[in-house]
Amino acid sequence: MAILPLAMMDNRVLHQKAKRVRKIDGSIQKLFDDMIETMHHIGGAAGLAAPQVGVSLQVVVIELPGEDVITLINPEVVKSWGERDVTEGCLSLPGYRGEIKRSESVTVKGRDRHGKQIRLKADGLLAQALEHEIDHVNGVVYIDHLESVDNLYQIEPEGEDELGHI
Asked: 153 φ, ψ to 5°?
């Protein structure tokens, strides 16, 4: 396993739709393992998408405190309900947060790391993390959701909480 370097906001891989995974092989398993190790190494991250480590594939890992790691291949939101205001940050734009709108609940489908078809219904922080990471594989970053640049602000490093970065 390896800790992967993060792609920053100026990297074009973050702004283009990632390729669908056609074959789940050893390279995909290694990517999952490396992404999980990278997310753990960073600390405080609730999720990571392959484009954030410079890999243009639809691969996502999510881990909320006290929960098992969720691995998704070719994930997509198939249904969403409600709307809520959230404060969001991103590992690819460190030191900033923004006020955006996210769904209250979502249903997501995809495959797990073993190729098994899965469907997740989520609300709250998990719904937010799923939307955030699925946005990444679709070439969308959270600042694309800002209603105004005034909704983006810089934070002090010591002010970050454990879930500051999605």
From this structure: -140, 155
Answer positive or negative: Cα dihedral of 48, 51, 54, 58. positive
Q: Is 63 a catalytic residue?
A: no
> DSSP string of 72-89?
EEEEEEEEEE--EEEEE-
d(CA 99, CA 35): 26
Q: What is the set of domains in the chain, with CATH numbers?
A: 12-159 (3.90.45.10)
Continuous segment of H or E residues that includes residue 23: none
pLDDT tens per residue, range 32-49:
999 999 999 988 789 999
Stated pTM of the model: 0.91
> Which candidate in 131, 133, 160, 162 is catalytic?
133
Q: Bridge-partner residues for 59, per DSSP? A: 73
